[in-house]
Design goal:
about 10% strand; about 800 residues; 26 helices; globular; alpha+beta; Chloramphenicol Acetyltransferase
Length: about 800
């Protein structure tokens, strides 16, 4: 989600001195090392790979096959057609008394070989089936005969009761697109934003590239695609994230919010106790691979590789490049409160602490009156500093305060107990939500450990949030974990009538361990400079959260349109009315249909979208004409989205070609031009993946309101959006206050979304839904279901807040 900024900024890191040294490695050696890294990852998970590698068969199927062979031998039948006899002859002769043992061993070896061959056949067949993407290209609601046949075969070969990594061996590898097709699609994507003169110049560079360099660079990518697990993902992680020298705050992290209208308890320690317990329950299920793999259409599995590094993971700074450190296990969390650091154990002997015990530990920290040591309060600002600076300071810190540093970096995750409240307020809903988003994205610059895979933030009024570092995985992975956490801590664990966690405190628990930092004098100045830079960066970010409640996903579907394409096309209209021009638009989509796939870019500013926007601004155009152009723009976006998901996108291929050119020290003006472009509009949809965990129809307030990220360009916008149930769309918009080209988001203007809604309503015969009664200021407080709902719904609480009106919010 936040990758757009890094995708724009990766190129300078390649031209640094450090980049030149690293890229001096021969490209064949780098391809070899990429494959070696893939194989090392596979070997490190050998046991889990064995359990899931035999899927869709099971270890018991070998016993069944062996028993069947033994039964056939007892009946004097030879299912091996003489092979078992040859195997028996090749075994050592242990004497006559062991003749029967040799026969059993021969049968076992034959059964093992046959079993392995059958499993290999199933894997190959399933991989071939999963390489079919025709279903993506079919219109919604229509299914061709080949797709129906494909679905039936996938159902047959997929087996039953898959574990999280069961499909990994059967996933196809991401294909390398045709370089001619990629260049053609690229030129088509930039046509709406370039003048005729600039486009002709770019097209000339493209033709020169196709003639002189494309075939050589493409050959290396084809070679890598056969050898490594994925031809682009490891380079994407390396050069876009780990080699970036910018601050992680705002540039690489993103945030996720709590329930928008509901706070289950105002007791800060209780909310922290339930949330931490729920997160560790998720980790337990992850370790046991009890999390079901994500299936599109209920049948097509997505890659699960990114789940491995959710917990016990830290991005360690380096002078020239960072690296990701992942531990197999961690039995504590690191906690920050009022400038002090604590180590809180999460297990007692071999058991996970109860939510009430965790609440007790967090309350002890909140009640601890001891002050922060000099410079300790602002120590975490170093994690928001440029990576080279933090790497140099960390060397001194590791020498002087190794135990404390290890406690933080080796924690399961980071917890920040903030001293200020956050969340939606009735008095000033717009400003309160904006401040909530800003607190999650940047905080005060010194109260988050930005290196951790994620930080759980618990505010003084019980509101929650996540700050997530981006390099280890993409938003759908952390989003899946967050949905489980919110549903579990609120619906399953619940709270007592007084707002505390259920259960009883444990007086025998040892006190949380206060971490002591022996900070050498030479890093005091570094902390002060890092804090100043972090506050400057934090103060420059303008955040706005906009719950759009005039209509939602349900209305868009009634118009027979894709909800995501609807929003993307409307954002083009909103941006044009703001800036008076078109710009390159970055929308991230996943490529997890392939092994170790991450993301691809959908270039949403198309000629069709441009024509629609111009028609909307032309008073002579009729509603029918505008609607026709709107549908063309939506259909074009859907085609681009499906192509990107199926590995036929533009940007990752061009990125990989650029990396190869740098390894080969080949200068390509075309590739230089491609990677000098600015994405003034970076967008992302946050998917709701586990709707079964929430009762959206009866309790629409109990849904996460999504999250956001910083802008990709100093003069652009970052926009994320989430469909909350059927009738609300929550937008998260960010920009930089220093820009003279962007509007201040706290002063909303007219909504282009509303304009498009009116157009569709009039032209298609639908009426735009009015605000539901619960959105009125005087609406009654939401009354959730009773605690006797057996964990199937929200717990009753006097802490629920009624919805606040937001018709004045705007995304422009």
């Amino acid at each position: 989600m936040a990758e757009a900024h890094q995708a724009v900024g990766f190129r300078p890191s390649l031209t640094s001195d450090a980049g030149e040294v690293e890229l001096g490695v021969p490209v064949l050696q780098e391809i070899y090392l990429s494959g070696l890294r893939s194989w090392k990852r596979h070997l490190s998970r050998f046991w889990n790979d064995f359990l899931t590698g035999v899927f869709p068969a099971s270890p018991l199927s070998w016993l069944f096959l062996f028993s069947a062979i033994q039964l056939a031998c007892f009946l004097q039948l030879d299912p091996s057609l003489g092979l078992m006899e040859k195997i028996k002859e090749s075994l050592p002769d242990w004497g006559g008394q062991h003749h029967r043992l040799r026969g059993v061993l021969a049968a076992a070896l034959f059964a093992s070989c046959l079993w392995g061959a059958l499993i290999f056949t199933l894997h190959v067949a399933l991989r071939l089936l999963l390489s079919y993407h025709g279903w993506l290209l079919e219109p919604h609601g229509a299914m061709s005969s080949p797709t129906k046949t494909w679905l039936a075969l996938v159902r047959i070969f997929s087996g039953r009761h898959p574990m999280l990594f069961s499909y990994q061996r059967s996933l196809p590898r991401q294909p390398v697109p045709s370089v001619q097709d990629t260049v053609r699609k690229y030129l088509e994507s930039v046509r709406p934003v370039l003048s005729d003169k600039d486009f002709d110049w770019t097209a000339g560079l493209a033709q020169e590239f196709l003639k002189l360099q494309a075939s050589l660079l493409q050959w290396y990518l084809q070679l890598k695609s056969w050898w490594a697990s994925n031809y682009v993902s490891d380079w994407w992680e390396e050069f876009v994230y780990l080699r970036s020298r910018n601050s992680l705050m705002v540039n690489s992290n993103y945030y996720m919010m709590d329930f928008l209208y509901v706070t289950p308890t105002p007791v800060q320690a209780a909310r922290a106790g339930n949330a931490v317990h729920a997160l560790l329950l998720y980790r337990h299920r992850l370790d046991r691979q009890e999390i079901l793999p994500t299936l599109l259409m209920g049948m097509r599995p997505l890659c699960s590789a990114q789940y491995e590094k959710i917990f016990n993971t830290t991005r360690i700074p380096g002078v020239h490049r960072d690296h990701i450190r992942h531990l197999r296990d961690s039995r504590h969390v690191a906690v920050f409160h009022r400038g002090r650091f604590f180590r809180v154990g999460t297990h007692s002997q071999s058991r996970l602490l109860s939510p009430r015990a965790l609440e007790q530990q967090f309350q002890r920290i909140l009640d601890d009156p001891s002050p922060a040591c000099p410079h300790e309060e602002h120590l975490a600002a170093l994690t928001a500093a440029p990576r080279d600076t933090w790497a140099q300071v960390r060397r001194s810190l590791k020498t002087q305060a190794q135990e404390a540093l290890e406690a933080v970096e080796g924690a399961a995750f980071f917890v920040s107990l903030d001293s200020e409240p956050a969340g939606l307020t009735r008095e000033d809903p717009a400003a309160s939500l904006d401040a909530y988003a800003h607190a999650l994205l940047a905080g005060q610059g010194h109260d988050r450990w930005f290196d951790k895979s994620f930080s759980l933030i618990v505010f003084s009024n019980g509101k929650l949030g996540l700050s997530v570092e981006h390099s280890w995985a993409d938003c759908p992975i952390s989003g899946h974990m967050w949905e489980f956490t919110l549903a579990t801590e609120c619906f399953q664990l619940g709270y007592s009538a007084d707002g505390h966690c259920k259960g009883h405190p444990d007086p025998l628990l040892p006190q949380p361990q206060r971490l002591h930092w022996d900070l050498p004098d030479k890093i005091h100045l570094s902390i002060s400079l890092a804090l100043r830079a972090a506050k400057t960066l934090s103060g420059n970010i303008d955040c706005h959260v906009f719950p759009f409640s005039h209509f939602g996903k349900n209305f868009i579907k009634r118009c027979h349109l894709s909800s995501d394409s609807f929003i993307q096309t409307t954002l083009q209209l909103a941006h044009f009315r703001d800036r008076g021009q078109f710009c390159l638009t970055y929308e991230s989509t996943m490529t997890r249909l392939f092994l170790e796939g991450r993301t691809e870019t959908v270039r949403s500013c198309t000629r069709e979208a441009r024509d629609f926007v111009r028609a909307m601004e032309d008073k002579e155009k009729t509603d029918a004409q505008c609607l026709a152009l709107f549908r063309l723009a939506v259909d074009k976006h859907q085609a681009l989205l499906k192509a990107a998901m199926s590995g036929q996108g533009v940007d990752r291929h061009l990125f990989a070609l650029y990396i190869v050119s740098q390894f080969l020290h080949l200068q390509s003006p075309f590739l230089d031009q491609v990677h000098s472009e600015q994405w003034q509009l970076a967008t992302s949809q946050i998917p709701v993946q586990q709707i079964h965990l929430f009762d959206v129809r009866n309790y629409p307030d109990y849904v996460s309101s999504g999250g956001g990220f910083g802008p990709a360009d100093d003069h652009g916008y970052g926009v994320s959006y989430m469909f909350m149930g059927d009738d609300v769309i929550t937008f998260h918009i960010s920009s930089k206050k220093s820009s003279t080209r962007t509007v201040r988001l706290t002063h909303p203007g007219p909504s282009s979304l509303g304009t498009s809604a009116s157009l569709l309503s009039y032209s298609s015969g639908f009426q735009t839904p009015s605000l539901p009664p619960a959105h009125d200021p005087g609406a009654p407080v939401l009354k959730p279901r009773s605690p006797q709902a057996q964990g199937q719904g929200p717990q009753p609480s006097c802490f629920s807040a009624s919805r606040n009106p937001s018709p004045s919010f705007s995304c422009t």
